[in-house]
């Protein structure tokens, strides 16, 4: 039977091992107990979050602002209550991004959760790549749409010219029918190429739609991270009311849809009030609806239908090329969905995305 002194020695040894681990790890980590008291942190955590030795033993509420993540205490309490691991992407006060993993600290005796271990993995480079990827995707989609759109007019004109040439007299022009036939065949091939280009672009994505079950909250977090500089610059409040979290769709396409809508809400915010954006998701009949509500400058009733046309812009006071909402509409319609807008000039707008659950 183990004596009391042996148990104490064992506890001291375990504590020394834990202290040694925390001193030597290169990853920012925190240990917060079940009473939400900060008990330990690694040297990298001290550097990244500007923690000091005197913070040990204090309630985490006293230093939560160091993490620039307002719901960190709520998240810790959630892990303590559920024993489930929680993962989030957060930004620290030095404007770097981290993957935050909150793991329950379970004491084997009694199998009770006595706090959490919080690990931070630097993902700043990944976030930067994500923003570059968003830019490249937008440029790629614009290029494809521009090619498909702009080439249709000359092709139509060429086709009409050929029809007119067919009606000309052929006397003295023995080779003319052959040449005309060659031109016509080339025209057909060009049309086929354009059709394949457009069809491949959307058809491939439709197949991917059936293959990927997404967590909407992860998509929203990606969008928030990508637009973080604009949100901070405008001191905008981005809120979520996610009633439905799972959606089957193409990750890139869904992210592009929400990114465009939130970006527009920021772009057309009112200069006289703090921008507020609310993203909701809910079930409505056979549709999963994702709505983006803002308190921006609003859209005149006469322009609310034309904003989804290509190259249409209702104002020239902001940057843009007038293709964002056009692409959003194309993405949704290609998947059997749709988009609508309700807006009051001077008050704000509500864009509603309808994803047809029977088609995706």
Helix-residue proportion = 40-55%
Query: Strand order of the main beta sheet, please?
Result: 2-1-5-4-3
Query: Major beta sheet, specifics?
Result: 5 strands, antiparallel
User: What is the N-to-C succession of helices and strands?
Assistant: HEEHHEEEHHHEHHEEHEEHEE
- What Rg, in angstroms, do the CA atoms define? 29 Å
The CATH architecture of the largest domain: 2-Layer Sandwich
What's the CATH first level of the largest domain?
Alpha Beta
Return the CATH topology of the largest domain. Answer: Heat Shock Protein 90
**Count of strand segments:** 12
Number of H/I helices: 10
* Fourth CATH level, the homologous superfamily of the largest domain: Histidine kinase-like ATPase, C-terminal domain
Which structural category fits the helices and strands? alpha+beta
Q: What low-confidence regions span 5 or more consecutive residues with pLDDT below 50?
A: 204-211
- Envelope shape: elongated
* Whole-number count of domains: 3
Write down the overall mean pLDDT.
77
């Amino acid at each position: 039977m183990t004596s009391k002194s042996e148990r104490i020695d064992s506890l001291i040894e375990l504590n020394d091992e834990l202290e040694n681990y925390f001193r030597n790890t290169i990853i920012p980590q925190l240990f917060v107990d079940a009473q939400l008291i900060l008990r330990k942190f690694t040297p990298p955590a001290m550097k990244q979050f500007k923690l000091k030795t005197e913070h040990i033993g204090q309630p985490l509420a006293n230093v939560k602002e160091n993490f620039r993540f307002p719901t960190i205490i709520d998240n810790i309490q959630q892990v303590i209550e559920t024993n489930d691991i929680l993962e989030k992407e957060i930004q620290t006060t030095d404007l770097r991004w981290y993957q935050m993993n909150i793991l329950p600290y379970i004491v084997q005796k009694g199998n009770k959760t006595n706090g959490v271990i919080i690990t931070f993995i630097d993902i700043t480079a990944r976030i930067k790549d994500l923003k570059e990827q968003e830019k490249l995707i937008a440029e790629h989609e614009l290029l494809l749409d521009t090619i498909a759109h702009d080439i249709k007019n000359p092709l139509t004109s060429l086709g009409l010219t050929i029809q007119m040439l067919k009606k000309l007299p052929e006397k003295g022009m023995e080779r003319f029918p052959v040449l005309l036939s060659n031109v016509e065949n080339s025209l057909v091939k060009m049309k086929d190429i354009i059709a394949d280009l457009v069809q491949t672009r959307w058809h491939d994505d439709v197949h991917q739609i059936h293959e990927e079950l997404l967590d909407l909250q992860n998509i929203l977090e990606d969008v928030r991270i990508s637009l973080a500089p604009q949100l901070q610059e405008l001191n905008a409040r981005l809120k979520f009311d996610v009633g439905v979290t799972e959606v089957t769709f193409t990750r890139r396409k869904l992210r592009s849809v929400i990114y465009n809508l939130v970006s527009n809400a920021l772009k057309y915010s009112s200069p006289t009030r703090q921008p507020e954006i609310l993203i909701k998701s809910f079930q409505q009949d056979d549709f999963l609806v994702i709505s983006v509500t803002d308190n921006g400058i609003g859209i005149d009733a006469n322009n609310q239908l034309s904003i989804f046309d290509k190259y249409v812009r209702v104002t020239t006071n902001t940057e843009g090329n007038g293709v964002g909402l056009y692409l959003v509409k194309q993405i949704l319609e290609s998947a059997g969905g749709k988009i609508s807008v309700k807006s009051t000039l001077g008050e704000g707008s509500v864009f509603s995305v309808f994803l047809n659950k029977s088609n995706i």
